[in-house]
Design brief:
The chain is of the alpha/beta class. Helices cover 38% and strands 17% of the residues. It has a nine-stranded mixed sheet, sandwiched between helices. It has a two-stranded antiparallel ribbon with strand order 8-9. Helix 1 runs parallel beside helix 17.
């Protein structure tokens, strides 16, 4: 089924595909994969090159954005763009506690194991073939960049060039190395935030103490805990987020009949911050994106014990955590509880397939232009440089002008620079 509409100067076409759950078993169970094509209406009849976008996450749908602004506007000047709802997200076959409820925990884990980057890339490759595209370009933000390195490992002949923002991972390091680096970066972000807003430390301690001594519920009925409060530190790695976080903290309490209590407005904001509630793949598969032939065994949880400053105690300084997933989340977060046993099975899974082929990447001939954020809290800068040192035909722009979500701030500027960098690579001898 294909439908289309026009908004402003952009034509949108919707594409629906039936693809194998397991690409190694093409005649087995099928899932739905959705993708939205965007093209400048004045160029629709032209022979434009294609570009497929890989969203960050894992576990989030492609952006629902206008074609007349930001990074997408820049891409539409040169490309016909395909926004892919990665399997399990958006209008593709959905993953939720409801859609998995009919399966046993073992069946859930086996099913979910097919939703990593290698399966996402094979979906994209199947779509490329179905659309009769000889080669296309790719653009990946964050985890989307991880997908692109997998694509370059599996099907380099299908790619004309690649753009990556904040998403060049280590291709060899285990999850424990990733979280060692992540906790250090998160510590730096905490120190910078509390230096900028000294009063925020006491605000955080007051909220934490209140949660420790009172039973508090989010609007969905879920008990709210200190550990959940710490999770909002994920915002410290985004541009222009510190002031917004401070504003949240300073308005946390209201006074009712002479007594302080956490306001409904604050608790509603805290619930909205928990993207894991609506995007369970983000929690269930997060650590597996670092696994190749090894088990994560709840890496972030284990490594945290080496950083006791993140374990809140009365009278001690408060610290936010960041983009880490913990086993207790499957005990506390309402929509994750039904998936706790499957999550434990996936944490113990050791026979994950390879996501990257370092031999293939070492012989890369596809122009790869990327931006690496020097202070990135999510993707370790040193590991990015380590990886790119072994990928020829790559060019990196290193900057501390932006945080991890730079394309949401000045996407048009960033993409323009990456396109220029890729064009320069394209002129090099292959």
């Amino acid at each position: 089924m294909q439908t289309s509409f026009i908004d402003g100067t952009t034509l949108y076409r919707q594409h629906h595909f039936k693809l194998p759950l397991d690409h190694n078993n093409p005649n087995g169970q099928k899932i739905a994969v959705f993708a939205r094509e965007l093209v400048d209406v004045t160029k629709d009849k032209h022979d434009l090159p294609w570009l497929v976008f890989f969203q960050g996450g894992p576990g989030f749908q492609s952006p629902r954005v206008s074609g007349e602004s930001g990074w997408l506007k820049r891409l539409l000047q040169e490309y016909r763009v395909l926004l892919l709802d990665q399997r399990g997200t958006g209008q593709s076959t959905e993953i939720s506690q409801d859609t998995l409820a009919h399966l046993s925990a073992t069946e859930q884990a086996a099913y979910l194991a097919h939703f990593r980057a290698d399966s996402i890339v094979r979906d994209a490759e199947a779509i490329r073939v179905k659309l009769n595209i000889i080669q296309w370009a790719t653009f990946g933000q964050s985890f989307g960049g991880f997908c692109i390195l997998t694509y370059l490992s599996l099907f380099p002949q299908s790619l004309s060039r690649c753009y990556v923002t904040g998403g060049i991972p280590s291709t060899t390091r285990p999850a424990d190395d990733v979280y060692q680096a992540t906790y250090k970066r998160t510590t730096d972000k905490n120190n910078a935030f509390f230096a900028q807003f000294p009063a925020a430390q006491q605000m955080c301690c007051d909220i934490a103490e209140y949660l420790s001594n009172n039973e508090v519920f989010l609007p969905n009925g879920q008990p709210f805990t200190v550990e959940q409060l710490q999770l909002i530190g994920i915002n410290l790695g985004r541009c222009n987020a510190n002031l917004a976080l401070y504003y949240q903290l300073e308005s946390a309490f209201i006074t009712v009949n002479g007594c302080k209590q956490l306001s409904y407005n604050f608790l509603n904001q805290m619930q909205q911050e928990q993207g894991y509630l609506t995007n369970p793949l983000y929690a269930i598969l997060h650590e597996s994106i670092y696994c190749q032939g090894t088990a994560s065994n709840w890496s972030a949880h284990r490594v945290r014990e080496q950083y006791p400053q993140f374990n809140y105690q009365t009278g001690k300084a408060f610290m936010f955590t960041g983009e880490m997933v913990y086993p207790w989340m499957f005990e506390q977060l309402a929509t994750l509880k039904p998936l706790s046993e499957a999550a434990n099975l996936l944490a113990e899974k050791y026979d994950w397939s390879k996501l990257y082929d370092t031999n293939v990447l070492s012989q890369n001939k596809v122009p790869l232009a990327c931006v690496a954020y020097a202070d990135d809290m999510f993707v370790e800068f040193d590991y990015t440089r380590e990886t790119l040192a072994n990928i020829p035909m790559s060019n990196v722009w290193i900057t501390n002008e932006y945080e991890h979500n730079g394309i949401g701030v000045e996407g048009e500027k960033i993409l323009s620079r990456l396109i220029t960098m890729a064009n320069a690579l394209d002129n090099l001898p292959k």
